[in-house]
Every structure is written in C-alpha cells, then in structure tokens.
UniProtKB/TrEMBL annotation, chain A:
Gene3D superfamilies: 3.40.47.10
GO molecular function term, any single one: 3-oxoacyl-[acyl-carrier-protein] synthase activity
Organism phylogeny: Bacteria, Pseudomonadati, Bacteroidota, Flavobacteriia, Flavobacteriales
UniProt keyword list: Transferase
Annotated Beta-ketoacyl synthase-like N-terminal domain residues: 47-217
Database matches in InterPro entries: Beta-ketoacyl_synthase, Ketoacyl_synth_N, Thiolase-like
Domain of life: Bacteria
Protein name per UniProt: 3-oxoacyl-ACP synthase
BP-aspect Gene Ontology terms: fatty acid biosynthetic process
TrEMBL record, chain B:
Entries under InterPro entries matching the protein: ACP-like_sf, PP-bd_ACP, Ppantetheine_attach_site
Source organism, top-level taxon: Bacteria
Keyword Phosphoprotein: yes
UniProt-listed Pfam families: PP-binding
Keywords, in A-Z order: Phosphopantetheine, Phosphoprotein
Entry protein name: Acyl carrier protein
SUPFAM superfamilies, per database record: ACP-like (SSF47336)
UniProtKB/TrEMBL annotation, chain C:
GO BP term, pick one: fatty acid biosynthetic process
Record keywords: Transferase
Organism of provenance: Euzebyella marina
Protein name in the entry: Beta-ketoacyl-[acyl-carrier-protein] synthase family protein
PROSITE patterns recorded: KS3_2
Cellular component GO terms held in the UniProt record: cytosol
C-alpha cells in the first residue's frame, strides 16, 4: 500500500507579491516589459547579515520562500527528512561573473566565493547548512522540468515511506548576460507586452523572469493541507498531436478521465511558436474543461511551473479561481481536481495532478 | 603603518561583504577568525587573493594564512615586510 | 519496493581509455592518465596535472558522425559512453520499454560558454551554444542521440556526487516500478571554469595526486563520462539476460557543515554509508572492497578515512582511490567508479591506489597499492561533493 502525499504549505517569491501568503492575487502587479524581476521581500527579516553576505539572489529568494513554507506548515526544521531543489541554472549570476572574471583578468586574482556559489546545488546545500538538515539532499537541473523532477523525487520517497516530511522547491534568478544572449536568439520577446495581453502578443519569444517556490510535502496530512499530490509525469519530447493521448493515459493510471478534471492549468507564455502545444491539449477531450494560465503573472523561467503549482494549491485551498488567471469564461466554482501541463519550446513537458484534500 | 591598517579594514569589509561592520568597529588586535569578526576558511582564501592582487604577495599553502590573518595588526606587519607593490 | 536492480550494461570514456575494455586494461597495468594539459590553453598549464581524454573535439565529433562545433565536449563524451552502455546491454530499441535517462553534470556546456562568452553578439555562427549553458541541455542532447523519446529524462547536479546520485535515483525508480530500464551516470569535460575554480580553493596538486598519503597536496582534475544500464528483475527475466552485477544499496546524506569542506569526523559520509548498508541489508563486515572518494585533498581524505573507521571499526576493508589513475572527474566520478566497481566484481580484482607512500598521521589506514586478486562479492563506492553532499553506492555480484 503506497502512502498518500500531501502539500502541507507553500512559500513563494515571484514577480507578484506572493511572499505575503495571507493574500491570494488580490492585487495583481502588471508590467509592460520584456523581462521582469521578483518583488523583493525584506530579506533582512529572514536572513542575518553574517549569513547573507555571500548569498546570491537565488539563495536569498529561496531562504525566504523555504522559511515561509516551513512556518506555514508549522514544521520544525528538525522534522525535515530531505531537501530537494529544482533549478534550471542555479545561481547563474555568480557563474557568469566567475566566467567574465576568468576572461577579463586572464585567469588571475580570482576569488572562490563566486565559484562556490556557481555549484548548482548551492541552494539546497545552503538551506541544509542553515537548518542543520543531514538528510537526502538532491538538486535537479533540467530546464523546464527541474521543479517537476524534484517533486517527483519527493513524491516517490513519501509514497514509499523513505521519508515523511520533505522540503522541496524550484528557483531561478534573472541575470544580465543570460538575458542579453537569449535576446540574440529570440527567446525573449523583442517588444514589451502588457501583462494582461500576453496571449494576444502575436510574437515569438517569452517575457523572462525569476522566482522561488518552496513547499512542505508530507505523507502525513496534518492540519490545513493544501492538496493531495496524485502524480507527476515528464517527457523529454512530445509532438503536439501526442499530448492528449499521453495526458489521458496519465489520468487513466489514476483511474480518471478528462471529465474528472475541474481545471486545466496551462503554461502559456505568449510565444506564438510554442503556445500551440497548449492549444493542442485544449481541443477534443479537454475542450469543455475550465482552463487557467499563469505565466503572464510570473513570467517565464525554468522553474516557472513552480508558480503554476503554487497557483493550483492556492486555488484548491481557497476554493476559487481568480479572474485574472481564468482562460475563457467557463470557470467552475470550487475546483476539486487540477491538472497542470507545462513545456518550454516544445521540450521537457510535464503533467502534474492534484486534488483537494 | 596606521594608514595600511585603515586600508586593510576597508578592504576586508568590502571584499568580504561585511555590510553590518564599520571600519572603526575593527580593532587592530581583534581576532579576524572564529570569535572576533567570525571569518571562515573561504574568507581566508579571499584574503590570500587580496595579498596577491594588491600587495604582490603570493602564498602557496593556505595554511600559511592562519598566522598572517590573525588580526589586522599581524596582516599589516606581514605586508610591510613582504610587499612587492 | 524491494525489487532487484540489475546492471546489464556499462560504458565509459576517461583519461585511461575510450571504452570499458581500455579502462580495464589501464587499471590492470598501472597505466596512469594524468599529464600536463594539452587541449585547453590556461596560464596554469605548468602548475597543474590533469586527466584528459585523449581525443580532440573533432576526433569525438567524427566518431559520433556529427557536425563540427555543435555540441559541448561534455555532450560528446557523454554520448559516446552512453552509447557504449546501451550496446553493452544489447539494447537495440531504446523505446521498447519504459526507459529513462538520468545524467549528472556540473559544468554542462560551460566549455563552450566560456569560449564564446563575449562572441555571441557579433558571431551568429556560435549562438547554438547559448542554450548549452543549461546543464539539462547536455542530457537532452544525449537522449536525442540515443533516440530516446517521450521519456523520463532528467539531470542531477550535486557537484562531485552527481553521477552517484543519478545511479541512486535510477535504482529507486526501478524499484518503485516507475521505470523498467534506465541509463544512469554522468559526464563532465574539463573547462577553464573548473580549473580556475578549484585553483581558487587552493586544492589542486602540482604533481600526481596521492590519495590517502600524509604528504598529499590536492587533487588532479579529470574529465570523463560513464553510464550504467539498470533494468528491473522482470525485464532481465523476460529478456533472459545475465546481469553484470546489481545495485544493492544506496544512500545520500548531507554533512551540513560547510559550503565546500567536509566535517572533520565525516558525519555526512557516515550517514550515507549507514543508509546504503541498511538499504542493501548488509553488515559492514560483508563489504569486501571500498572504492573510496579519495580526492587527495587534505580535507577529504582525513574526513573520509575517519568516516570509514567509524563505520568499519578496526576492520576497514581493503580500499583504494582510483582517482590516482583518472583524476577527479567531478560529476562523472560516481559513474566512473561505479564502472570500476563492477569491473572489480567481474574480475575479482582490487585496483591499486597509486602514488601512496606514507600513511596519514591521524590514523592507521593504508590503501591497496598494488593490483590484488581477491574473490569479491560486495563493493562499496563513495562520492562526496560541495554543499556537503555525501553519497554511497553498494554493488554486488549476486542478487
């Protein structure tokens, strides 16, 4: 008998004011940019100066969202059995600086801190160090399924009784060289797009951003759990005409059909070239399923689906779908079961299934 | 010498991001590691680079740093005796 | 849970050989792969020794029949080793069963990123490397090269324990029935980035590394890729395969002591070894040989040695660090040493810890310094990384 897996709490730092978990997208911040940054919490409230002095932005954001998640779950640091993090690029800001230092200084007078922070597992390592958590400590770095890989690892451990409480999340930071190079290859939109009209942009590329989302996941339900995590599946490749079949077979394993899905959350990012994947899933079986989207609020980054996962959990807990994320006008009152589908540029697809608990 | 010590305090604060520390809070003989300023082995490596870059002093073995970086006073004394720039 | 995890194939490319057979040959004849660096221009060339793969990028591109300068060296060597692993396992249709690829890397495409860092603006011909900076991009390319479709493909980056953790995840996914078959391991090429990074930490030796020696001066960096094919019991039975060995135990723990250094008493390492023994349901005395992490840095070997004593007491099994042959291949190390552990089991031989002269002052531990034939049933392999990441794998000859 496999254990059930519950999302006990959420913590978020994003381009919206999500670090304040008492509200739920009450006041949306709108942008008219090609890249956006997170709304910074007051990091000093969370991190002592001595600890903060070497921290990259990604670590700071993650410290805040991890602490918020732990506090909300009323979980003592000593109860955490494992820390599992997904990140597309880690603390890429320090990696970039270390590379430019190597080149600019002809390999001389280099200092270790930037190199150390460049290690992709520095966020998971520093959270463990801060908490004194000696358990399983993994970091997944696989583009748009980095977060889902971490979640899948956590899910598997909790189902199989290898752990009972896990802190898991995703983080990515936005930095200059990454932005300028991705502009060159058209992955970032040429012209700014207003937040609420991203789906009508008619242009290629996405609005790049950053963020950090952490969750306490457990096989004990506890009080005030957000949802039950039923399953996650990822695919390195999928054609547009294969998505529906894979989604249905994923649901079938949970003894569900498309009719059981009350809300389909899609990773639309306004890129005309690749949003067609979401359109493909929105036909046929899921034609009448209410739908929502979120990257207009969060922006696109490797672990942006962490924001989508945060959104699904908030919807299940609060019992309504905020107007600002609704696609079309077919939204159901209080969704019980949510399926999230995400991909980036036609690769690294994920399906995540949650239900109210 | 006192000018060098002042300079070292400023550099230590800047190089090691000690945002909450002011220059006049560091006494010449305060221990830099452990108790005192609370620096660690990564900071020691940062300071070794500072010796090289700013004073032309190369340390081959990080262990040599331990004595030199005891305090701002010991650092200044060592730099005065060994600097090439 | 509780299913067996069979190793049915393996592939490797390292400084001591371009495939499994060549690596075995070198290990058996003390052919060391450490030398001066030739393929990267660096001002440190006379101060460091490295374990470089002999082929140039164009040699590797020709071998894979791909166009020039499309892939990072990390991808090139990864594709070669993963292909050998599949061939060795006799797999012709990679999509026949629920198959995954889990790869560990730390640098990913950093070799190309550092080469073209300032060139992207003016030179559109090198822009294919922009997305190569994503560590996951290297794994995706290897998956494509292998023809793997609609599958579970992911990347683990936990510094120098990455490949060991990839093997661990693969074994867990097979045990829990999520996959029938999975290619696991890691790949890392040399780069200026890691050479200079380790240089700033002042832990690079200027001569041959001497693991577990009292006068050890640090590590030699190396590059390698190594993969195993893991398959479920059911699939092994169905295909009537004879496994090379089994993944019997695994454990990952965090030292939670320091960002880069290991704790003096090796807490994380002890926890990792304990967990692995528990999963394997083995007592410490049942371990016949330990392939140590043994990087030859002052810190690692002291911490690991103490951890071995804490686990095994006075009867520490015969142990050696094969990094004296290959250099420290970072993310790939756990994969390289998994292949060597399986070779040790297959051939009943312990590979030597080269360059060792003087035991460390802190304890009475002497590694195996000459090739030794011995009947082996169980091998334990350690891999530790920055961020306090400690991993142990246990391989066995029989289920």
């Amino acid at each position: 008998m496999k254990n059930k897996v519950y999302i006990r709490s959420v913590g978020s730092v994003s381009a919206q004011k999500t670090y304040d978990n008492t509200s739920f997208l009450n006041k949306v911040v709108t942008y008219n940019e090609t890249v956006t940054r997170v709304i910074d919490p007051n990091y000093k409230d969370f991190i002592p100066p001595a600890a903060a002095r070497r921290m990259a932005k990604g670590i700071k954001m993650s410290t805040v969202s991890a602490k918020n998640a732990l506090t909300e779950a009323n979980t003592e640091e000593s109860e955490v059995d494992a820390i599992i993090v997904g990140t597309g690029l880690g603390c890429i800001g320090d990696s970039e600086k270390f590379v430019s230092d190597i080149i600019d200084n002809n390999e001389q007078f280099l200092t270790p801190t930037r190199f150390i922070q460049s290690s992709h597992n520095t966020v998971a390592g520093q959270i463990a160090l801060g908490m004194g958590c000696k358990g399983h400590n993994f970091t997944y770095v696989h583009s748009s399924i980095s977060f889902e890989s971490a979640l899948l690892d956590a899910h598997m451990q909790l189902m199989n009784d290898e752990a009972s409480t896990i802190l898991t999340g995703g983080v990515d930071e936005l930095v200059e060289h990454h932005v300028s190079t991705h502009r060159l290859i058209g992955h970032i939109k040429k012209d700014p797009v207003e937040t609420m009209s991203i789906l009508d942009s008619g242009s290629k590329g996405a609005i790049f951003s950053e963020g950090s989302h952490f969750f306490v996941v457990s096989n004990k339900k506890g009080e005030n759990a957000y949802s039950e995590l039923l399953g996650i599946r990822t695919f390195n490749s999928l054609e547009r005409d294969e998505i529906e079949k894979e989604a249905l077979s994923f649901l079938k394993e949970q003894e569900m059909t498309s009719d059981d899905i009350d809300l389909l959350i899609l990773g639309y990012n306004g890129d005309v070239e690749f949003d067609t994947y979401y359109e493909a899933l929105s036909q046929e079986s899921f034609k009448n399923t209410p739908k929502a989207y979120f990257k207009h609020l969060s922006g696109e980054f490797d672990t942006a689906s962490g924001f989508g996962f945060w959104l699904a959990n908030k919807i299940l807990k609060h019992g309504f779908v905020p107007q600002v994320v609704q696609l079309g006008d077919s939204s159901k009152e209080a969704p019980q079961t949510i399926l999230i589908y995400n991909q980036y540029r036609g690769e690294n697809h994920s399906l995540t299934l949650l239900k109210k608990c | 010498m006192s000018e060098l010590k002042q300079q070292l305090k400023e550099k230590i604060i800047e190089q090691l991001n000690l945002e909450d520390v002011a220059v006049d809070e560091i006494q010449d003989n305060d221990p830099l590691f452990g108790e005192g300023l609370g620096l660690d082995s990564i900071d020691a490596l940062e300071l070794i680079v500072m010796l090289d870059k700013d004073y032309g002093i190369k340390l081959a073995d990080p262990k040599e740093g331990r004595k030199i970086f005891e305090s701002v006073q010991t650092m200044a004394t060592y730099i005065e005796a060994n600097r090439s720039r | 849970m509780g299913k067996g995890v069979a190793i049915t194939g393996m592939g490797i490319i390292s400084a001591i050989g371009n495939n499994v057979a060549e690596n075995y040959q070198s290990l058996s004849t003390n052919k060391i792969g450490i030398d001066r660096i030739t393929q990267i221009t660096t001002i440190h060339e006379n101060e460091i020794m490295v374990g470089e793969i002999s082929g140039t990028n164009s040699d590797l591109e020709n071998q894979l029949k791909i166009e020039a300068d499309q892939w990072s060296r990390t991808v090139l060597i990864g594709a070669i080793a993963a292909r050998e692993a599949l061939e060795n396992a006799g797999i012709t249709d990679v999509n026949e069963f629920k198959t995954g690829l889990i790869s560990g890397t730390t640098v990913g495409g950093m070799d190309k990123s550092e080469q073209y860092f300032y060139d992207y603006t003016d030179n559109p011909k090198v822009r294919q490397h922009i997305t190569g900076l994503h560590a996951g991009d290297s794994t995706n390319k290897i998956a494509k090269y292998l023809g793997l479709e609609k599958s579970f493909v992911t990347t683990i980056s936990t510094a120098c324990s990455s490949a060991a953790n990839a093997i661990m995840l693969g074994a867990r996914m097979i045990k829990s029935g999520q996959l029938d078959r999975v290619v696991v391991g890691g790949t890392d090429s040399l780069s200026k980035f890691t050479i200079n990074g380790f240089k700033t930490l002042m832990i690079l030796s200027d001569t041959f590394s001497t693991p577990f020696d009292d006068d050890r001066k640090g590590l030699n960096l190396g590059e390698a890729a190594a993969y195993l094919v893991l398959e479920s019991d059911e699939l092994v039975a169905k295909k009537n395969k004879k496994p090379l060995a089994f993944v019997k135990g695994y454990g990952n723990a965090n030292d939670a002591f320091h960002q880069t250094a290991s704790s003096e008493n090796g807490d994380g390492a002890v926890l990792a070894m304990q967990k692995a023994l528990e999963v394997a349901d083995l007592k410490p005395e049942e371990v016949d040989y330990v392939n140590a992490h043994g990087t030859a840095t002052p810190n690692n070997d002291l911490s690991e040695g103490r951890a071995l004593i804490r686990i095994f007491g006075e009867n520490v099994p015969e142990f050696s660090s094969t990094k004296s042959f290959t250099g420290h291949t970072l993310a790939a190390a756990g994969g390289v040493e998994a292949v060597y552990s399986v070779l040790a089991l297959q051939h009943n031989v312990i590979f030597p810890n080269l360059n060792f002269k003087t035991p460390m002052k802190e304890f009475d531990l002497t590694p195996v310094t000459e090739k030794k034939e011995k009947s082996l049933h169980t091998v334990l392999s350690n891999s530790f990384g920055f961020g306090g990441n400690c991993s142990t794998l246990i391989f066995s000859k029989n289920q």
